[in-house]
Write a structure and sequence with these properties.
mainly beta, Jelly Rolls, 2 domains, 8-stranded antiparallel sheet, 5-stranded antiparallel sheet, 1 helix, 15 strands, 9% helix, globular
Amino acid sequence: MTRMRMAGYAAAGLIAITGALAFAQEKPGFKDTPQLPGGNWLVHDADRPAPTVSTPATAPGGAPSDAVVLAPDAWQAETAPWQVAGGVMTVPARAQGARESNLVSKQSFGDVQLHLEFRSPNPPKGNSQDRGNSGVWFMQRYEVQVLDGYQNPTYADGTVGAVYGWKPPLVNAARKPGEWQSYDIIFERPRFAADGRLVRPAYVTAFLNGVLVQNHQALLGTTIYRKVASYQAHGDAAPLQLQDHGSPVSFRNIWVRPLPEAAIAQDLPGGAK
């Protein structure tokens, strides 16, 4: 056999091995492993779809590549326009007895990851619920409280980081008034049956300034003042809302990532969690 022919065979063999390796690299995994609960996939299934790519922002708190950035023009005020300067939106001053002017997103959302930054007025004015009061409302129904919680005693289920009227935050992670603070919140909308019956409550996981304050907390229903919340059936998407509670709270750097159904935690077969 000539050297040329031997070289040809070697090259062909190398191509075949390389091709096999490339195929293995394209679909790594197994097809001879046990089936996972739910009956869709095997353990380490080679055919299970890879996650889509979301490129993180270069700076902490920045919007990733798959986020919806809610700049000032993505909102509309109910009555009086909010003050806008340099991308910062501030609750407007209003006369005594004037109607509140909540800020409502033009786009509707259901399950979301939300990031926003807020700032309470400095120097602070008032105390308890009259100091730096606002709120983040999911689907215009479910409120995570915004308040100046720094050395400001108030009722526990109404301080910053609380699910208003229901669950106090796990800890008070508030910064001083005048300092920018951050919320990172996962909101899972409630699920209703066709007849309006509640199938699964809404859940909130919230970080205030990077500190966990609500851990997959089930909600009682639509937020209401001085009463126990309850659910009323509604659609799968509705606007976000920033509350006008009469205090000049400011907001900036707001973005959301709408979450697919696959992101919502499911119970395992047999009732296990």
